[in-house]
Amino acid sequence: MAIVLALHRTVVTAFNGTATDDFSTVYNALSRAFTGLPVYDQAYNHVDPLYLYNPGATLLLMPMAAIDDFEVARYLFITVNSLAIVAALALLTHLVGQSLRGPVLPASIAVAFSTESVINTLTFSNINGVLLLLLAVFLYAFVRSFDFAPAANQIHPLSRTSKTQRFVAGIAIGLAIVIKPQFAPLLFLSVVRLDWRTTVTGIAIPVALNVVAWQIIPGAQDYFTKLMPYLGEPRDYANSSLAGWQAYFDISDALYWPVWLLVAAAVAIGTIVLLRWRTTDVMLWALTTSGLLMVGVFTLSSLGQQYYSMWLFPMIFTVFLPRSVFHSWPAWLAATLFLIPNSWTSTLWPDFGRWMGTYIGTLGWVLLIVVTAATALGWWRLQVKNPA
């Protein structure tokens, strides 16, 4: 099932393509940069796909433009993202202590390649699969680095293995940040663990790439003068964030901001309470907190697209741990809402179907935030009542 679904989604569904084509926009922009033409010379008053990557990401991805044949480049890009998703699932399977020869890996591949996130990532030909792999590498290296670290109450120096893993974690999250700044909040994990290697590396890579790109990428300054103002305005189409919800329905600030603040408070509460396990159960804390921070970004920022939900796979893998948010059915209901690939188009209720098509992911994200905060509070309460 895993092999058939992965091949079908890659070489049939994705290779066929769809009206939404993220790759053409990126490839054309990289080709302009490769030939010395301005990258951000776009019309920002229409809804056609726009090139949104910063100069550093442009520099990082520019070798793609060296492939002259557009179709070959597109097929290769889709294949790389598909393989990256499989590799990420393998890393997560190993991280949570499951054998790569057991049923978990093929089952996770089959389920993943049946979700809206993976199907649309491959069909739209975007880079989210590679970003999932970078996220998995970051979490794997970060969590495993504590296997070779001294206990919190010891002052022995870190082992060479632990140091290397933390630099690897920093490189992975730094590359993810330069492509999608939405990953920047994950540096919170290394900051609270006083892990300067991951933190400094994760910050240095996007900064260095953008400094170099500023001198190389044609029209790099237009990113700030033209593109940044556009990114600051929530769009009212294909936007599942709360800001997109407000823009689409023209909701007043009097309703929007209380909802936004409540959701933000739930994210903050969950994140703070989960800190209790940052030293006693690093894996649970890192995977759960990373998921909570990411879903908070999707929901509370100016742009959240449902296929971003792929980056919540690490949090879902905590189901194999002794303690997990995903040991409760409301968490699985939330995951179903933001991962299910169903079309909600209805001839009887056309408006409702159209709304569900965009905002079912929002419902799932908000539910997962509430469930995570409530579960963390429940764990804390039980720990206070039964310290042993």
UniProtKB/TrEMBL annotation:
TM annotation in the entry: 72-92, 129-146, 167-188, 255-275, 282-300, 306-322, 355-380
InterPro entries reported for this sequence = GT87
Q: How does it sit in the membrane?
A: Multi-pass membrane protein
Q: Where in the cell is it found?
A: Cell membrane
Q: Does the keyword Transmembrane helix apply?
A: yes
| Keyword list, A-Z | Cell membrane, Membrane, Transferase, Transmembrane, Transmembrane helix
Task: Offer one Pfam family short name for this entry.
Answer: GT87
Kindly indicate whether the keyword Transferase belongs to this entry: yes
In the record, the note on similarity to other proteins reads: Belongs to the glycosyltransferase 87 family.
Q: Can you say what this protein is called?
A: Tat pathway signal sequence domain protein
Could you read off the lineage of the organism from its UniProt record? Bacteria, Bacillati, Actinomycetota, Actinomycetes, Mycobacteriales
